Amino acid sequence: MNRTNPFDLTGRTALVTGSSRGLGLAIAKGLGDAGARLLINGVNIERLDETASSLRGEGYDVDLAAFDVTDEASVIRAFADFDKKGIAVDILVNNAGIQYRKPMLELETENWQRVLDTNLTSAFLVGREAAKRMAARGYGKIINIGSLTSELARATVAPYTVAKGGIKMLTKAMAAEWAAHGIQANAIGPGYMLTDMNEALINDPKFDAWVKGRTPARRWGKPEELAGTAVFLASSTADYVNGQIIYVDGGMISVL
Ligand code: GCO
Q: What pTM, to 2 d.p., does this model score?
């Protein structure tokens, strides 16, 4: 019998922002494993080049998309460049993000703004440019990366919490306006993951013990554990899934 794989992404092009390492890289690999051509994005050209060549070495079909997701002119230029090259972004993963930990009473407005620009406004900017093209084609998948802090606050990460709460609502706003154009916008909410961004937390024995105690799975998540959910949301099996945030968190958000 000739069965087709409903999760197959062959022929699709996926742009993953902030994908030279961490969660973005793991998600990109997952989409690539499912057959997608990858557009790897970041601002550090050297690191991006290294990631692209190692991905190519592993057999992935990769192009570089070096632009700053916080800079509107660069985002617009990048999409104009895709248009010129005949590249259609079928799948967009808004993953780029930074963390800045400081108690709010000491927090500088500049750093508040920087975290919001990188973690939230970027998803609007890149999302808008991608969705203009997706709407014209009547097809597109947008996956925004949320967080446990899309729902719950944690002391010292206020701007991140506000940005990730915003990501949850931006995802719903995208669904509200773009679902009729054949675009599905959803989000993934990772739990505590083993990434460079979380290095200071992972290396803090008290925090490490707290994560393991607080998470029903009793461990940190591995970046590659997001891949399956990303593939699902990017695939045709999720064509009627809209505006959702799916937590991949070892059960943390569901328990006290
Ligand atoms: C923090 C971390 C966060 C978490 C993530 C959990 O300081 O709390 O850096 O990024 O890992 O938000 O979902």
A: 0.98
Active-site residue, from 60, 100, 139, 160 = 160
Residue nearest to atom 12 of ligand 1 (CA): 147
Sort strands 245-248 and 37-42 into parallel, antiparallel or unpaired.
unpaired
Q: Let me know: does 13 contact 37? Beta carbons within 8 Å.
A: yes
Residue ranges and CATH numbers for the domains of the chain are 13-249 (3.40.50.720)
Please list every protein residue whose CB sits less than 6 Å from any atom of ligand 1: 99, 101, 147-149, 154, 157, 190-192, 197-198, 201
The type of residue at 128 is: R
Q: Is 60 a catalytic residue?
A: no
> pLDDT (tens digit, 9 = 90+) per residue, 124-146?
999 999 999 999 999 999 999 99
Taking the centre of ligand 1 as the mean of its atom positions, its distance from the CA of residue 85, in whole angstroms, is 37
Mind listing the pLDDT tens digit for each residue in 151-207?
999 999 999 999 999 999 999 999 999 999 999 999 999 999 999 999 999 999 999
Pairing of β 140-145 and β 91-94: parallel
